[in-house]
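Example 9 (inverse folding). The structure is encoded as follows.
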């Protein structure tokens, strides 16, 4: 998870992910106006709780302020 901190992700978010047992192979793209650590963690907690199965199957998740979108890998695949 060190690379997340190197990419500008707040260390509090990195710790929250690590403490929650999440690994670094999950792809989540944030498109947030409010990038404060506590807000990011709140959005992340909500999205992870609702998308655990999708991430386990292989997905990219785009997180916005009021919604999120799941795209299964490989992108463009017709298999769901």
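The amino acid assigned to each position is listed next.
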């Amino acid at each position: 998870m060190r690379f997340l901190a190197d990419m500008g992700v707040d260390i509090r978010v990195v710790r929250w992910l690590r403490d929650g047992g999440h690994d670094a192979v999950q792809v989540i793209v944030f498109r947030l106006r409010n990038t404060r650590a506590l807000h990011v963690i709140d959005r992340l907690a909500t999205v992870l709780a609702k998308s655990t199965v999708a991430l386990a199957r292989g997905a990219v998740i785009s997180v916005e302020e009021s919604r999120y979108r799941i795209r299964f890998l490989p992108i463009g695949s017709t298999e769901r």
